[in-house]
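Students often ask why we bother predicting the structure of a whole assembly rather than each chain alone. The short answer is interfaces. A chain on its own may look different once its partners are present, and contacts between molecules only exist in the joint model. In this exercise we take two input lines together and write out one structure for the complete complex. Read the inputs first and try to guess which parts will touch.
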Amino acid sequence: VSAPAPALDRAARPALKDQVEAILAEYLGRQTAATAVKIAARTWLRVEPEALTHEQLGRLRDGLEPMLKTLLGAQLASTLLERIAREVTR
Amino acid sequence: MSRALVVAAILAAHLALSVWLSPEALAGYQDGARIAWKLLAAIACGLAATSLRRGDYMRSFWVPLGVAYALLAAAEPAVAGVALGEGPVRTALRAVCLVAANALSVLASVVLARACRAAGLGLASSWLEAVAYAAVGALSVAIVGPPLLRDAIDAVSGGGAESWASAFAGLADAATFVLLVPVLRFALRIAGGRLAWPWWAFALSSLAWLAFDATELAAGRAAFASEAFRTAACLLAALAAVYQRELVASAAGGEAAPALEPTATPLP
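Now the answer. The structure tokens for the assembled complex follow.
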């Protein structure tokens, strides 16, 4: 069985921004999750959330960390960031 | 949600018992219950604080709130009377406890109101926010103003430490109610997330204290409503703390299913 064509594979997966937002929304609600991703992407990576790539995920997590630590505490923030690293796929 | 139902059931049972008891037994029961609810809130806030790590921002909300409730319990006449007997020392220490408790509750409200900005998620100002501040400010003045004025006049005309403490409590209540605007605004923004539960429970607790202050305007004619709102305020603060603890505990055990896992798409 041959591997799926890259373009088709990408089309089947939600955008990286949507995957990160979905994980954060469980704790922060949809609206604040979207705001957090937008601020982290613009401030730390100078890109719009829609343009985020998997290679930028580490920097995005760095940008999200202070927000999550403030609102949720260090332990829960760390768990969520680990989930993002583990579950967000290309 | 089940936690909220437990709180509602405890409140209903307390009020039913208050109606059922004879007037002689009622005074002693309510004295004890007031101490118990405040201690419950203090212990719950302490547990919420210990669920967070040292240096976590939200710890600086739960610690002062918990200490405030502990001081309010200590300032109850039944506690202060047993511990210190009657006299000027008791009056002065009660006043110190009340002032410190109110100052700490304002500090906690400031910390919570600033949380959104501290997280870097500052919300843009809007005309709706300005209207909300004006409305809550006016409501605070209407509810807290008359007793504050009375206490201030008593204090400057030699009413003693208790009058000063009551006047300060009025100012602190007004500040706490105004600080509810940013708290409620952010609570609306996080609606649907687990973080919203402690925020909403705390906001409802503050609203219950506002309603309690409003019943005080009736000067004894609304004693039942007054008891209901005071109890609700303490129980909701404890509920907020329980939600906070569960929120942090979810980090250890609440591994959800992978988010937005894509479904297989058949190739043509």
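Check your guess against this: The two ends of chain A are 21 Å apart (CA to CA).
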